[in-house]
Amino acid sequence: MSGEERYLEDITRLASIKPDRGPATPGEKEAADYVEGRMKELGLNPVVEPFRSIPHFYITWALHSLICIACCLLAFRQPWIAAAIILFITVSFYGDTSTRFFILRHLFPTGPSQHVVGKLKPKGEAKKVVYVAAHLDAGQMGFSFNPEKAETTQAFFKKHFEMQPPLLALIFYDMIFNLLACLLVAAVGVTTFTTVLLLLGAAVHIIPIVIFIPHEFAKICPGASDNASAVAVMLELARRFKDNPPENTELRFLGDGSEETNMHGMSCYMMKHQQELDKDNTYFLIPETVGQARPRVVVGEGVCWVVEHSHELCAALLMAAKDLGYKDVTPICLRTGGTDASPATVRGFKAAVMIAMNENDYPPNYHWHTDVPENIDVNTVRKVANIFEATIKTIDAKF
């Protein structure tokens, strides 16, 4: 069977899981079982690593905003206490969105999730390790992901600001605004000016609450592009290298769980394994939503502020694309969220991401019911696999 035929088989199998493969669900476990079976076929001797996921990040973020609203009201009587609480909430929001640490999220129930890890030893001595990581779960839909509205918003920001809509960054900066307003009340008292500042800062938090709470209960999309296409790329790379592995690079194929929880699954993996990995010689290559449109190299991402991914890895991906004749592959910076590269990058590891986007810098059918196998462009998936294959060979020979 050809690589192309297997792409579609893998994508169709994962996207057809019923009722869905949301994070920390039986459907995600079914996806992990399927990937484990495929890795066994490829001789990777996979290991399943169970962990407890906290999937309730939407409601957690809404809670941050609710507390900020309450503190803005509290500041009329106890501004110092309100300022202290908002400072704590701001730190918590930064930790949660950056995947560095989690505070308020631990107030919510956990669920069973799992990673599937297959290894391919090099021909010679293992001097480097390359992870190819693709998440197994699919994400919530929710009204803000309606492509008619979401892509229109993205097109507006691209045209006028040359960036993606930084909604989550605005929430963070509003928390800073709340903190400063509370401190000003503590310094000068309640005046017309400080009252306006407190009420304005509180009102802004209504926006994320209106968005996040419905998303917590939204249905899960089929997830053919996000992220079954990337899982297919990961498995295809394992197939390509199994009979001719790199000389001095161990390949690890990581099907990680619970990415659609703002990367909590990958964060758990990094927290568990980071001490045993050599930061100088460990590389993370992340395919993310690569099922349709133009492949792009993500050079940086972040919510509160942008964190740049490995310059050498991003350059290697772009050079591989150029050498393969893929002139449409260009860099992009993500501001609307993050990928599984973030938990590696913020912990000092070298990571890079590829994502597929259209002319509006928007992934077609993203988190929507139209993200089905019929809308997959196999040529896009193949391009990403080719670029990753060439990059792995570059890492082995030149890094």
How is this structure best described in words?
It is built from 13 helices and 9 strands. By secondary structure, it is of the alpha/beta class. The protein has 2 domains: 3-55 and 111-141 and 220-398, 3-Layer(aba) Sandwich (Aminopeptidase), CATH 3.40.630; 59-106 and 163-215, no CATH class. α3 (57-74) runs antiparallel to α8, α4 packs antiparallel against α6 and α9 (224-241) packs across α13 (378-398). The protein is elongated and about 75 Å long.
List keywords for this structure.
399 residues; nine-stranded mixed β-sheet; 2 domains; 49% helix; alpha/beta; Aminopeptidase
What form results from the Cα inertia axes?
A: elongated
CATH architecture of the largest domain: 3-Layer(aba) Sandwich
Largest sheet: 9 strands, mixed
* Helical residue percent band: 40-55%
- Backbone CA Rg: 22 Å
Structural class of the secondary elements? Answer: alpha/beta
According to DSSP, the number of beta strands is 9
Present the secondary structure layout:
Elements: H1 3-15, H2 26-41, E1 47-53, H3 57-74, H4 79-98, E2 111-120, E3 128-135, H5 147-161, H6 167-188, H7 192-204, H8 206-216, H9 224-241, E4 249-256, H10 264-273, E5 282-287, E6 294-301, E7 307-308, H11 311-323, E8 330-334, H12 341-345, E9 350-357, H13 378-398
Parallel strand pairs: 3-4, 3-5, 5-9, 6-8
Antiparallel strand pairs: 1-2, 2-4, 6-7, 6-9
